[in-house]
Amino acid sequence: MLSWLAHEKEAGNHLELCECHYPATACLVPICSLHGAAVTTVEGIGSIQTRIHPVQERLAKCHGTQCGFCSPGMVMSIYTLLRNHPEPTPEQITEAIGGNLCRCTGYRPIVESGKTFCARMAEDPNKKRLTFQGKKMTWITPVTLNDLLELKVNFPKAPLVMGNTTLGVTIGAGYSLAQLNDALHFIVSDQPKEKTKTFRALLKHLRTLAGAQIRNLATLGGHVVSRPDFSDLNPILAAGNAIINLTFKEGERQIPLNGPFLERAPEADLKSEEIVSSVYIPYSTQWHFVSGLRLAQRQENAFAIVNAGMSVKFEDGTNTIKDLQMFYGSVGPTVVSASRTCRQLIGRQQWDDQMLSDACRLVLEEIYIPPTAEGGMVEYRRALIISLLFKFYLKVRRGLNKMDPQKFPDIPEKFMSALNDFPIETPQGLQMFQVGG
Ligand SMILES: Cc1cc2nc3c(=O)[nH]c(=O)nc-3n(C[C@H](O)[C@H](O)[C@H](O)COP(=O)(O)OP(=O)(O)OC[C@H]3O[C@@H](n4cnc5c(N)ncnc54)[C@H](O)[C@@H]3O)c2cc1C
Ligand code: FES
């Protein structure tokens, strides 16, 4: 666990420094980056030579450890969560250990041990709202969306901290993916739904991208620049028309993410003197749909077998395609754009089964995965290219129907389940004990 003295907050008449704690994967942290940080390892919180920590004790008592290989990591993930949230929700426990793999226990007893710290929270969900009363201002941290909405009613003039620009939002490249997640949550809670489709698509993938340890270390700038073929965020950012702001000694320049840069065209690479300073993500509009789609072997901490970011913009009030963008990950050396397919479909006056059928044919002609491709499963990945497109098609049809049910028919009932995301559920189970005679 890494701890920094960070934000200054006003408490009474004086400013206080508060500590922030992050779980981190040791092998990814260069020692020089730790200047100013306190490092706590599992031995630092307790051991059988001194005294074991309640997290360790409860993990053992709940049978959350078998071979023990994963146990130190599990302990540190739960310990860090408790340092930041002394009374977490069961969902926070599940999320905190999303980046830890256990081969033996099936996770349920590990989650159960973490849940023993949630008890009081369950009794009084409002208890966690934080209020800091200063001379000139009051800072209130709501705990749930409903809590926030209530505060908006009670304090209509109080500003929401984060995301108040008119056209879109610029997010610093140094933001960790965990901070990006928090920032996007603020924006989504503050803005009308129609403006935040790109942000919501990003949030969905940020929940499952690697685990908390990685999301605390990885930055938005590093993610965008490294352009991995399996990137979960770049396809959505590209489909949402995000722009990268570059800074160098003599000035600044902007490049769109959905162009040659993403395709790794050599002439579009960053120059050696340039850094990414921020990423601008525009708001979506009413007749504009943006989605992120992915399929992986498990939801958290697994690279996508295929993922995609797609967007379609219609002429206002119609289903005439004005703009269409499709980006696929894990199908080539970098994120791949189905730009030829999109160009051929722009101008179509229907978003219907015929359009879908043409789109499927075109996209399979355009995106070629060679039989020797790294990762194999070529036929399966080709099937996923189509499946994700089909899902997007259904999502958009549903969206159009919601906007104008008279004009745009809903999707057949039998396809409804395709729209639901698999929930990330807290493992549950029952343990039976038999007393021997
Ligand atoms: C275990 C694990 C699981 C993962 N799972 C997923 C996953 O499921 N989905 C997914 O999409 N990704 C996944 N990733 C990838 C992860 O998202 C990227 O590694 C991460 O975003 C890179 O960010 P970073 O800050 O660590 O970059 P770094 O590794 O620090 O940098 C990457 C490159 O970008 C350059 N760079 C960094 N910042 C800037 C800047 N501001 N300006 C210019 N150049 C810069 C660096 O010099 C370097 O060349 C995973 C990674 C790990 C380790
Ligand atoms: S107890 Fe063996 S890997 Fe988790």
TrEMBL record:
Domain FAD-binding PCMH-type: 145-286
Cofactor(s) for this UniProt protein: FAD
A single MF term (Gene Ontology): iron ion binding
PROSITE patterns with a match to the protein in the record: FAD_PCMH
InterPro entries assigned to the protein according to its UniProt record, in alphabetical order: 2Fe-2S-bd, 2Fe-2S-bd_dom_sf, Ald_Oxase/xanthine_DH-like, Beta-grasp_dom_sf, CO_DH_flav_C, CO_DH_flav_C_dom_sf, FAD-bd_PCMH, FAD-bd_PCMH-like_sf
Domain of life: Eukaryota
Keywords on record: FAD, Flavoprotein
Name under which the protein is recorded: Aldehyde oxidase
